[in-house]
Amino acid sequence: MTFKHKVGLLTCLIFFTLSLSAQEKDCTTKELDNRKIIVKYCFSKFLDEDGNELLLIEDSTITEAQVDFAKCVLLMKDVQKHKLFTGDYESRIVKTISDNEWIIYYFTDNPWPVKNSDCVSRMTFSENKEEKTAIFEFVATPSEYEKGDVNRMKYFNVIYTFKDLENGKVRITMKGKSSPPVKVPMWLVKSAFPKAPASAVRDIVTLVKE
Fold it and tell me: Which positions ≥6 away from 28 have C-beta within 8 Å?
């Protein structure tokens, strides 16, 4: 395990510990597309390791779609296509660790006056053939790639779970936990929900069907 990897894991552990102490969550559940998509999202505050109060966003989005399970896996492994459903300007692999683990870079071209930001994360893939599930997990590892003149996400964890329902359908679950790397008005943050996560799973379905 490299020093950078250890630092990334430490940051992640601190994030999870701090998020557990987040209180006064503002949670909402919405059903969209005739109840085909269910989005639950929560906003709260937490203190980072330096005592700064930060915004914590937690969301969970579920849908079932008539798509091919194997193609879902192929899409997630094609990192250059991630930007097509995450809304980022750029998405690419910066390092391959193994057949099931990669360092991923996302760059976000934010609208003025919000400064541009990026995210470096470790993507891991696991598959359970008995349960017919495939899981892709992203954990922030901000020190794993050289930083430019942008704000970098330190707190980021997203898990995509694909379950083959064996009836031609796949259940797609996307769970996220993050803290924005830039200051954004709360009204603007809230305006992104439930639209942003719902759009992400819709776009995944569309891309898999192509």
Answer: 40, 41, 42, 193, 194
**CA distance linking residue 87 with residue 158, whole number of Å:** 15
pTM of the model: 0.89
Q: Are 91 and 106 in contact (CB under 8 A)?
A: yes
Environment class of 138 (CB within 10 Å of its CB; exposed 0-12, middle 13-18, buried 19+): buried
Question: Per the omega criterion (within 30 degrees of 0), is the bond before 185 cis?
Answer: no
What CATH number did the domain enclosing 147 receive? 3.30.530.20
133, two tokens? 């599930």
119 and 103 Cβ atoms separated by less than 8 Å: no
As given in the structure block, the two tokens for residue 79 are 């990192």
- Distance (Å, whole) CA 27 – CA 42: 4
Average pLDDT for the chain: 90
Closest CA to 92 of 82, 159, 74: 82
Give the domain range for residue 78: 3-209
Angle, alpha carbons 143-146-152 (nearest 5°): 65
% of the chain at pLDDT higher than 70: 89
Pair of tokens at residue 181: 């790397």
Number of separate domains in the chain: 1
Backbone angles phi, psi at 118, to 5 degrees: -145, 170
